[in-house]
Design brief:
Blueprint (H helix, E strand, L loop, with lengths): L1 E3 L3 E3 L8 H14 L1 H6 L7 E2 L6 H8 L8 E3 L9 E2 L5 E3 L1 H6 L4 H4 L6 E4 L4 E8 L2 E8 L2 H21 L4 H9 L6
Parallel strand pairs: 3-5
Antiparallel strand pairs: 1-2, 4-6, 7-8, 8-9
Amino acid sequence: MTKVQKVGINDMKGFSKHQLYYVWAGILQRCFSKKFYIKQPTYKGCTIDKSWLYFSNFYKWAIVQDWKGNAIDKDILKKGNKHYSPQTCIFVPAYLNNLLTDSASIRGSLPIGVKKHVRDNRYEAYVKIEGKKTYVGGHPTSEGAHKKYILAKNAEILRIASKQSNPTLIKALLKHRMKPC
């Protein structure tokens, strides 16, 4: 048995090259690596279920999920959650995970989804649609651009929710719609 991040225990010999091992090791990194927090400070304070400190327990949970080609997410089911556990995590497409990220640490003082276009002295709204930053409209004020962002983001959430088959995920997505200004 090998230790990962000094706390995780890889108790499944021969699985260290399995995709789910890398997912598990990534969770441990987000929960325990001080170096990781320097580049990704939003993960500071993340915790992991004690049972998931053993790779075999995480693997048993993950292998019956829709994990192939998807990313693990801890805060779609419960907004703002920082705890990785069988009750709080779900596998989702990466573009969906990115759609719901607010990027507060890098956007500055502007409202979410808004960027100042210096040359034209206007504000532009962008939403990630299928993982691609997409222009959804401009406005003379940041508030006006933010309203366009909210409309486009809510439409994208509804579009994605309508394509899902997992009722738990659909319900969680609908909770992520933003209230209009």
